[in-house]
Amino acid sequence: MEKRKMNVSESTPDGLQELSQQDLISKCEELLKSNQELKKRLANCQQNQKSESKTKRKEHKQRPIDFSKYSKRHIAFKFLYLGWDYQGFAAQENTSNTIEEELFAAFLKSKLIKDRASARYSRCGRTDKGVSAFGQVIALDVRSNLSSGVGVTPSVKVTNDSKEELPYVKMLNRLLPPEIRILAHAAVDNEFDARFSCKTRKYRYYFPALNLDVELMQKAAQKLVGEKDFRNFCKVDVGNNINHFIRNIVSFDVTRIGQSSLCMMEITGLAFLWHQVRCMAAVLILIGLGHEKPEILDYLLDVEKCPKRPQYGMASDVPLVLFDCTYDDNVKWIYEQDCNENNMTHLQQVWIQKAVQSTMIGAMMDDLQSHSTVSSNNSASQLSSILPGYRKVEYKPLNKRAVCEGLDRHMEKLAAKRLKLEEKSRGEQNTDILE
Fold first, then answer.
1. 306 near 407, Cβ under 8 Å?
2. Is 128 a catalytic residue?
């Protein structure tokens, strides 16, 4: 049987049989390109579906909690943080890299609080950028499993009557970064305020011994003990309405740490001014170096002879730690044993890492010294890490230096700034009325 010849027009779209070979190749390339784009779109759609599915699962896990069905309890938390890489303790508008920001993220994610505004939050103190703490304390209302007890405010909608409290420390440490660790918690009365209920605060400042006269520093430090005007040992903080500078230092000790090459200042007081510890540390180190006599402290404490602070740099923030905050004996700190062991293990790991890093750097210094004729015992350069900008050859006595602007000048600037803001606000209001 004769095979029927296929008509090209029967098997191809209209017009293709009239295209040249080059045109057909171009048409195929367009089809391939279109096919690739369709594959990409399909892959994106599938990926989006997977993401939406994961999001739905996460949202299901993080379903809202009806806080009205739970009791509230006023709890104080004691915690540590290594603040070297943070911009300070208190939350700020221009950065999220603060200790307080991390704390509230953990409290919110663990559903222990509904929001900050309703938590009745208080903090013992606010440390500056780079400063660490071992005994910092905050207090706030958190969700509770109990319907009665110290600090408990029961809800009328409570359906459970558990006798076991929530594992607060474990819950929070799972969510906090490793540089921040909750150490203990305590149930406190509803009137408890972490700041105003605090009896004393203890700071420690670590520094290298080098060629400092530590015994002279200890003797001089006793001039700072007692109730005195410390306006020449702080930074003026008029923004927080701080216009009085009388503070009470309970004790001030400068000692060597065992047989090591490090020393420590331990300062206990009722309250402190902004940068007060770092300013006192700086002046004492200058006394230890022999640049100043102990009597310079008498001069700086006499606000009639020295009404404005001489211009001198503060000691570094890195060696400073808020070591302890003390309260009445009725504050019973609970250290959960397993969490305490985990915190110990974590600190040991950090210590080993830092010790290894220190040894590595020491070996590098020794090797460089073996190829150098210059002595490595340059106390001036080493002290510049503790006293930024310190130069022995350029040293000028404190009582011969220019002074900073006084409180009156700061108040004038603040008043002018407020007046400018008020005028701007009135101008915007008038513009709204005209419109």
1. no
2. yes
